[in-house]
Automatic annotation (TrEMBL):
The keyword Lipid biosynthesis does not apply. It comes from Eutrema salsugineum (Saltwater cress). Pfam families: Prolamin_like. This is Prolamin-like domain-containing protein. The keyword Ion transport does not apply. Residues 39-109 form the Prolamin-like domain. Residues 1-26 form the signal peptide. Keywords: Signal.
Amino acid sequence: MTSYTSQLTTLFVVVVLVCALVPAFSVVEGETKTLWDTCFLKITPKSALDIIGIVFGNRTITDVCCHDLVGEGKVCHDVLIKYISDRPHLVANETQYLKKRDDLWTHCVSVTKTA
């Protein structure tokens, strides 16, 4: 239960930080809310944390999270990861993060096709 609470707290912090930085988003402001409403809400908090942990850390993904990710859609996945990787403290490794993003997408598409 503590791990779940910790994950929810982490997700909440990520959401608050992203919301605070939304004006800096590279997409037109009206599109930002649309992307947020249509993309982020399609995925479970656990899967969102796992995806962020995979791209920006060393976590692993489950088949369930892969299905969530593919259900979210490639445009949503690309835009949200690009948005996070554009942060000043992450931008130095942006190329690496974008490659991990694309590798994760390819992996998840293959998982969903075999299931």
